[in-house]
Amino acid sequence: MTKYTQAFKQQVIDFYLENHHNQSLTRKHFQLPSQTLSRWIAQYQYSGSNGLAVLRTKQKYPAEFKYQVIQAVINGIYSAEQATLQFGLSNSGIISQWLKAFKKEGIKGLKPKPKGRPSMKPKYAKMPPKPKTEEERLKLRILELEAENAYLKKLDELIREEEQRQRKLSKR
């Protein structure tokens, strides 16, 4: 839940306007951080009272929208604060998070993360069903022997490479 209601924000803005746009007086009167008051003033100037609206649910934005916002910031079209107003975001901190995720993981970092535990699907393929005919049984046995043969060849190759490496080290 948000810390301030829309009515409170409107009261602060009204006080600010009544006192000749004096931010210092308004900030002290309501005991607000400077950045918070500045953001509310900018939101009010840009969107009127609608800019002060309190969103009841956490907004979810598609990756394409996030990409559009950060590209506008990266390309210097808007500052983070200006983009916040232009795109109707609650604060510029969210843009900073998106930029960080984009720099770390690219467009993939802007996509929503799955909630909950990962699925318990097996990581390996299931064994084929038992053969029903003699021909199927023999084909399966051939596949098993071919796999075993390939494994042994690879193992032999690795052993030989290791022996060559040991010989080179012992010659030095």
UniProtKB/TrEMBL annotation:
One of its GO terms (molecular function) is sequence-specific DNA binding. Residues 8-52, 65-118 form the Insertion element IS150 protein InsJ-like helix-turn-helix domain. Residues 109-133 are annotated as: Disordered. Transmembrane segments: none annotated. InterPro entries: Homeodomain-like_sf, InsJ-like_HTH, IS150/IS1296_orfA-like, Trp_repressor/repl_initiator, WH-like_DNA-bd_sf. Gene3D superfamilies: Winged helix-like DNA-binding domain superfamily/Winged helix DNA-binding domain (1.10.10.10). Residues 145-172 form a coiled coil. The keyword Coiled coil applies. Residues 110-124 have a biased composition (Basic residues). The keyword Coiled coil applies. Keywords: Coiled coil. Belongs to the IS150/IS1296 orfA family. This is Insertion element IS150 protein InsJ-like helix-turn-helix domain-containing protein. It comes from Conservatibacter flavescens.
